[in-house]
Design goal:
Elements lengths: L1 E5 H14 L11 E7 L2 E7 L4 E7 L1 E4 L1 E6 H10 L4 E7 L4 E6 L2 E8 L16 E4 H12 L12 E7 L4 E7 L3 E7 L5 H4 L4 E4 H10 L4 E6 L3 E6 L4 E6 L9 H4 L7 E6 H11 L9 E7 L2 E8 L3 E8 L1 E3 L4 E5 H9 L5 E6 L6 E5 L2 E8 L20
Antiparallel strand pairs: 1-5, 1-7, 2-3, 2-6, 3-4, 4-17, 6-9, 7-8, 8-9, 10-15, 11-12, 11-14, 12-13, 13-26, 15-16, 16-17, 18-22, 18-24, 19-20, 19-23, 20-21, 24-25, 25-26
Length: about 375
């Protein structure tokens, strides 16, 4: 293979491809960046055996061919080169890739081309258009509620159609938090099937990095999810999981009965919690909510940090006198809402709490409060989720 390319036209593709491959672990062929020259294009491909990325970029092809190089080494060199024209050529006799730019010359060892396995092409039939910004927002609203442990059944984002209502529900949970976003997309519904699809968290994070402001095309076959830009120049795909997802309708049903309800200013609450968080410690990471008439008292105390107390005017209906939340988690949840005011629904002092907002009609988050022993005022126990 031999081609002339411009760094500024290809560095983004090299970066995206390299981000997928393992850093040090895994077989050598999984750490390979594949470069293919054909017609007037340079195709860059990589995989970690599950996620596949391929991108095509303008090039002056002098000789068609395919070569594999150590991905991280190639990227580390490539990103340090100045902008301008670069010549790539393969020396078959020495099994090296020659990279030249002006007076700069480099030789990189190549890998056995028999390692290369054909990537799954984007299936055009039944592909749908989607706004990339909307998909990114869905991932942001749900991913922080997904468990990080790949041995956990809560390691996934669930996307399932609600056929009788025309909605699609996207949700995730991690044992102490649950997030759900509803939206309508008629074209996507039939691709999901009756049971919906499960997407592991690492794939979501890679997809989020890949998304730009452009429209995308998405398709789902029996094994994989595919996304590509409208120019078809870049494609990302990853496998669907067939694990079981917990029945989240069970804990949504907790809120069908009358509950205690609190409405308050979201920004004011975030500001107060961020100050109260300064008084959290390694052993006391919570904020106490104490209700008194139409006033909410927030406080936290640590032996080494001191004590912080604030009060906020609220609209409260209920009989719960005190409830305790992990401060940092609650702050993060509130930042995902757009509504000026949020509503917190409490089932009981130790039961799940649902957070909603008027300007976020199709979004909700459920958080479990912290259970604290009655006698020991600031002893925090393990959060035991009912989700």
């Amino acid at each position: 293979m031999k081609a002339k390319i411009k760094k500024e036209n290809t560095i983004e593709g090299v970066s995206k491809a390299t981000s997928i491959i393992p850093v040090r672990t895994g077989a050598a062929f999984l750490r390979t960046l594949w470069l293919e020259t054909k017609e007037d294009r340079l195709k860059i491909m990589s995989t970690d055996s599950k996620i596949e990325f391929s991108g095509e970029y303008k090039a002056g092809t002098l000789e068609e061919g395919l070569v594999g190089v150590q991905g991280r080494s190639f990227y580390d060199l490539y990103r340090r080169l100045p902008t301008g024209e670069i010549t790539l050529s393969q020396d078959d006799g020495q099994n090296v890739l020659l990279l030249k730019q002006g007076r700069r010359k480099y030789k990189l060892p190549t890998h056995d081309p028999s390692w290369f396995q054909t990537f799954s092409p984007f299936p055009e039939e039944n592909a749908i258009e989607w706004t990339a910004s909307h998909l990114r927002e869905l991932i942001e609203h749900i991913s922080f509620c997904i468990a990080d442990d790949d041995s956990d059944t809560m390691f996934y984002m669930k996307m399932v159609p609600v056929q009788e209502e025309g909605y699609i529900e996207v949700c995730g949970l991690n044992g102490h938090q649950f997030g759900m976003q509803r939206f309508i997309h008629p074209g996507l519904q039939p691709l999901l099937g009756e049971e919906g699809v499960l997407i592991p968290k690492p794939y979501l994070m890679e997809l989020k990095k890949w998304l730009t402001q452009e429209e995308i095309l998405l398709n789902i076959d029996q094994k994989r999810i595919f996304v590509t830009n409208k120019q078809r120049s870049e494609t990302l795909s990853f496998p669907i999981s067939f694990d079981k997802f917990p029945n989240y309708n069970i804990f949504l049903s907790y809120f069908e009965n009358p509950t205690s309800r609190l409405i308050l200013d979201r920004e004011e609450l975030i500001d107060s919690l961020e100050r109260i968080y300064l008084f959290n410690s390694e052993t006391q990471r919570c904020c106490y909510f104490v209700f008194s008439d139409q006033e909410l008292v927030l406080y936290s105390q640590g032996q080494d940090t001191g004590e912080g107390t604030e009060s906020i005017e609220i609209n409260y209906q209920g009989d719960i006198e005190q409830i305790i939340f992990p401060t940092k988690n609650l702050i993060e949840i509130l930042t995902h809402f757009k509504s000026p005011y949020v509503q917190l629904e409490f089932t009981d002092q130790n039961g799940p709490c649902k957070i909603t907002g008027e300007k976020d009609p199709d979004y909700l988050v459920i958080i479990m409060p912290v259970k604290v022993e009655e006698e020991t005022y600031y002893t925090e126990e393990e959060i035991e989720s009912e989700l």
